[in-house]
Design a protein that fits this description.
It is built from no helices and 10 strands. By secondary structure, it is mainly beta. The strands form 2 sheets. A 6-stranded mixed sheet has the order 2-10-9-4-5-6, with no helix packed on it.
């Protein structure tokens, strides 16, 4: 398993930016495809972005393409999500997990986009 702790969320105005971080423990991180997910109130959790172990393959949900960037630092066991040009519809709790996801989820980090 790869226990995970998300951070970096907050309240931001539309058009603003945030950078999320996810710190993983365990030696399996650098061999694992990672993903960022989000869950908005009343909606199912959705996959936002994925990155392969070496970072060579990255995929994004259509709703965030061109605005979000996923990256990882295997030396620090950390995966990041840079979010630019945020919209109110990006408001959600953001989680990181493996892809496909483990059954265990961290607490996530709240992102609220509002004026």
């Amino acid at each position: 398993q790869v226990p995970l702790v998300e951070s970096g969320g907050g309240l931001v105005q539309p058009g603003g930016s945030l950078r999320l971080s996810c710190a993983a423990s365990g030696s399996g991180f650098r061999m694992t495809t990672m993903g960022w997910y989000r869950q908005a109130p009343g909606k199912q959790r959705e996959l936002v972005a994925t990155i392969t172990p070496g970072g060579g393959r990255i995929n994004y949900a259509d709703s965030v393409k061109g605005r979000f960037t996923i990256a990882r630092d295997n030396a620090k066991n950390t995966v990041y999500l840079q979010m630019n040009t945020l919209k109110p519809e990006d408001t959600a709790v953001y989680y990181c997990n493996t892809n496909p996801p483990m059954s265990w989820w961290g607490q996530g980090t709240q992102v609220t986009v509002s004026s």
